[in-house]
Amino acid sequence: MLIDRAVVRVVGGSGGSGASSFARFKYKPKGGPDGGDWGNGGSVYVKADPNLATLLDYRYRTIWQADRGEHGKGKTQTGASTSDIYLPVPPGTVVRDAVSGELIGEVLQPGDTLRVARGGRGGRGNARFATSTHQAPREWEPGEAGEDRQIELVLKLIADVGLVGEPNAGKSTLLSVVSAARPKIADYPFTTLEPNLGVVALSGHRSYIVADIPGIIEGAHEGRGLGFRFLQHVERTRVLAFLVPLDDEHPQATYDRLREEVRKYSEELAGKRHVVLLTKRDLLGDRPLPEIRASEAIEVLSVSSASGNGVNELKEQLWKLVEGAKSDAPAEPGAAWEEEDSFQ
Predict the structure, then answer these.
(1) Ranges of the chain with pLDDT below 50
(2) Is the pTM of this model over 0.85?
């Protein structure tokens, strides 16, 4: 089960209090102040763990609290500071303040850490307040309370190519033939209920990640269907592939609708380089491909996942687009293709 959103309470440990104490020795009846200092409370961090792919752990445990620091002691003994605690999350997790919505930060690469609740500073003991004119201080400082806040964890999958299309557009089938992923495939809408990732392996030790996003319907940007919930997972992709099945009665309208839903969700996302991928090419037989007007697209392509026609070429061309996006090279329509109609 993909749990991609969770709200948890994180509490930093309180600092220990300083001690108020005076030395008492057999041959030193009027010893000076010897109250020791504090120990700091532990902080709470979020840490990217590459072995995780979901926020499931935070559905069942919603409070994470670090231990408090030890109090100071006599004989100027300093209280021990406590260890920080780390909340493991999948790479690509965004952290926000659950109350204000303010962005705290994000962890993208394995090992990245982000402090989400600061531990309290400990207080000073009375030995710290001794002066030449104030030789028997009884002052001491209490420890500070640790930071206490509600945070929202939002997972945005990190993929190179995002497959976007309406239900039954052939996204899952395509993912299964270009990678080793095995998503659920059936002949009814909304078969895919959560995003799937697949690694496309090419010769020369080349690879990239493709994400199959659950079906987008009209009004997805307003929360209809499953699209709004999962559109967040294509925000980090470098290239978008808009899938339009060739058994669609109005392919142009379908493409325009998909583009509009993505644009309403995020202008930045709509500005990513993209291709139009006409799927189920085998259903047309000898009939010509319909004309799709897509001036913003890099190219309009066709492929058949059932017969495998054009699959290898598609994998290579997506690789070129991904590499171009990594280098921020300008992408001119048709520039990524050496031959026209290579999938026909």
Answers:
(1) 183-193, 217-228, 329-344
(2) no
Q: How far apart are CA 24 and CA 122, in angstroms?
A: 25
Count how many Cα atoms sit within 13 Å of the Cα of residue 137 in the half-sphere of its side chain.
19
Token pair, residue 31, equals 């010893």
Nearest to 122 by CA among 184, 35, 52: 35
Q: Which amino acid is at 144?
A: E
Q: For every residue of the chain, which 3-state class applies, written as one string?
A: CCCCEEEEEEECCCCCCCCCCECCECCECCCCECCCCCCCCCCEEEEECCCCCCCCHHHHCCEEECCCCCCCECCCECCCCCCCEEEEECCCEEEEECCCCCEEEEECCCCCEEEEECCCCCCCCHHHHCCCCCCCCCCCCCCCCCCEEEEEEEECCCCCEEEEECCCCCHHHHHHHHCCCCCCCCCCCCCCCCCEEEEEEECCCEEEEEEECCCCCCCHHHCCCCHHHHHHHHCCCCEEEEEEECCCCCHHHHHHHHHHHHHHHCHHHHCCCEEEEEECHHHHCCCCCCCCCCCCCCCEEECCCCCCCCHHHHHHHHHHHHHHHHCCCCCCCCCCCCCCCCCC
Q: Which residues of 147-186 are buried (b: 16+ CB within 10 A; e: fewer)?
A: bebebbbbbbbbbbbbbbbbbbbbbbbbbbbbbebebeee
pLDDT, tens digit (0-9, with 9 covering 90-100), for 231-247: 666 777 888 889 888 88
- Provide the sign of the torsion angle of the four alpha carbons 46, 48, 51, 54, taken in this order: positive
